[in-house]
Structure formats: structure tokens, C-alpha cells
């Protein structure tokens, strides 16, 4: 028998897994309960609705990945190294987190780093306020991080002109989201890898001397070695 805290954590973890593998609209309470090994009564003891669980799962996911993002955007690191860490992280597809084998270079794309939670905000109607709120909060977190990186790159002399960090951060975020959706629609990691680096170089307007050719796709173990 799980205690109430363990049951709640299991529901949160199961919701994260199912949303990564599918999407908000296609995952029902019955499927969540079956996968988590809990009854519907236990579900409704902790959450009033699927939307409540989704919002809590989004917060749970943000907290569980905060350390990884903090390592990428470590202010003690040179901004160019932060940018490189971000590129490598975005080229991961979350398969290891789901217990799946590493992908081929042109294998299936699984949206990563909270993207399914962000995407859910555009999948639901206006009445699903908690789902949209989760998407907005995750997006704003990502935009703040991107804007901070743009500001550091600007101050370090890596960028042309005088870009507005907040606007450029938003543009970079929306570009990445669109590119991940494009890659997923084509079921191709290669399409993401082909445009990710050059697209961000153009949006941020990197000076030519700080640009490099597209990096090969990294696997989880390689990123761990970079982060440590």
C-alpha cells in the first residue's frame, strides 16, 4: 500500500510520462490511473480533474528539471558556453528519460524540456484555464532564461547591433518551439538539427567569428559529461 504522498507522486510522474508519449487531449483519467496503478477514488482524492493533475504535473516537471537548466544557464560560465550547452540540450529528445534506447540521427523526435506541456496550451479550449496557465508559466520561464542569455551575449560582445534581450528571447523561444513541432511532424531529428543552430545564430545575430557549423546530435551521456 502506498501512502498518500507516494500515490500523489506516482500520479504526477505518470502524467508526465503519458503527456510526453502522447498529448493532453488523448490521455484520460482512466488511462492515468491504470498506468499509475491507483484507483479513480485515489485520483480524485488528490486532484479535482485532469486539468488539476496536468497543472501539478507541469510544476513537478519544472522543479525536477530545474537543476539541469540551472547548470546550462550557470551565470559563472561564459555566455558562449551557456549557448553551446543549450544547443546540445535541445538536440536531446528525452528518450532516455522514458526508458527508450538512444535514437538514430534521423530517428523519431520526441518533444523535450516541457514542450508537451507548452503545446497543450494551444490544444485546449479557453475554458481549460489551468492547462493554459501551465503553458504560460512554462513559456515565461523559458523566455526569461533565453532573455538572460541574450543579455549576457550582448554584453560580452558576441552579437551585432543592439538587440532588445526580452524581444529577442521571445523570438528565440518561439523559433525553437516551432522547429520542434516541425521536426515532430516530419518524424525527423535531422530536420531539427539542420536548422537549430543557424536559426538561433540569425535570430540573435551572432557576429561571424563566433559562429560554428552545426554540431552532431548529442546523447544523454555526452551531455552529462559536458554539464559535469
Briefly say what this structure is:
It is built from ten helices and no strands.
Specify the overall morphology. elongated
What is the CATH architecture annotation of the largest domain?
A: Orthogonal Bundle
The helix content, as a percent range, equals 55-70%
Major sheet size, sense and barrel closure: none
Number of helices: 10
What ranges have pLDDT less than 50 throughout 5 or more consecutive residues? 94-101, 109-114, 217-228
Structural class: mainly alpha
Number of strands: 0
What's the CATH class of the largest domain, please? Mainly Alpha
Strand content: under 5%
Q: What do the pLDDT scores average to? A: 81
Rg (CA only) = 19 Å
Question: Might you state the CATH topology name of the largest domain?
Answer: Tetracycline Repressor, domain 2
Number of domains: 2
Measured between the Cα atoms of the first and last residue, the distance is 38 Å
SSE pattern: HHHHHHHHHH
Secondary structure layout:
Layout (H helix, E strand, L loop, with lengths): L3 H18 L7 H8 L3 H7 L3 H23 L6 H12 L24 H9 L5 H27 L9 H22 L2 H16 L15 H8 L1
Helix pairs in contact: 1-2, 1-4, 4-7, 5-7, 6-7, 7-8, 8-9
Supply database-style keywords.
66% helix; 10 helices; disordered C terminus; 228 residues; 2 domains; mainly alpha
Q: Can you walk through the features of this model?
A:
The protein is 66% helix and 0% strand. It has helices spanning 4-21, 29-36, 40-46, 50-72, 79-90, 115-123, 129-155, 165-186, 189-204, 220-227. Helix 5 runs antiparallel to helix 7 and helix 7 (129-155) crosses helix 8. The termini are far apart. The relative contact order is 0.12.
Amino acid at each position: 500500500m502506498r501512502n498518500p504522498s507516494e500515490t500523489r507522486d506516482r500520479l504526477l510522474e505518470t502524467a508526465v510520462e503519458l503527456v510526453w508519449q502522447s498529448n493532453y487531449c488523448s490521455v484520460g483519467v482512466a488511462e492515468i490511473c491504470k498506468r499509475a496503478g491507483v484507483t479513480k477514488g485515489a485520483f480524485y482524492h488528490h486532484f479535482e480533474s485532469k486539468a488539476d493533475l496536468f497543472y501539478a504535473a507541469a510544476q513537478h516537471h519544472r522543479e525536477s528539471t530545474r537543476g539541469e537548466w540551472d547548470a546550462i544557464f550557470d551565470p559563472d560560465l561564459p555566455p558562449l558556453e551557456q549557448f553551446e550547452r543549450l544547443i546540445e540540450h535541445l538536440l536531446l529528445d528525452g528518450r532516455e528519460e522514458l526508458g527508450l534506447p538512444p535514437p538514430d540521427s534521423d530517428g523519431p523526435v520526441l518533444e523535450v524540456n516541457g514542450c508537451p506541456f507548452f503545446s497543450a496550451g494551444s490544444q485546449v479550449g479557453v475554458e481549460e484555464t489551468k492547462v493554459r496557465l501551465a503553458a504560460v508559466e512554462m513559456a515565461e520561464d523559458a523566455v526569461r532564461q533565453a532573455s538572460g542569455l541574450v543579455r549576457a551575449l550582448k554584453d560580452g560582445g558576441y552579437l551585432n547591433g543592439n538587440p532588445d534581450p526580452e524581444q529577442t528571447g521571445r523570438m528565440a523561444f518561439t523559433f525553437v518551439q516551432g522547429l520542434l513541432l516541425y521536426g515532430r511532424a516530419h518524424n525527423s531529428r535531422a530536420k531539427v538539427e539542420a536548422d537549430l543552430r543557424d536559426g538561433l545564430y540569425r535570430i540573435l545575430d551572432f557576429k561571424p567569428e563566433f559562429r560554428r557549423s552545426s554540431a552532431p546530435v548529442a546523447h544523454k551521456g555526452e551531455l552529462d559529461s559536458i554539464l559535469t
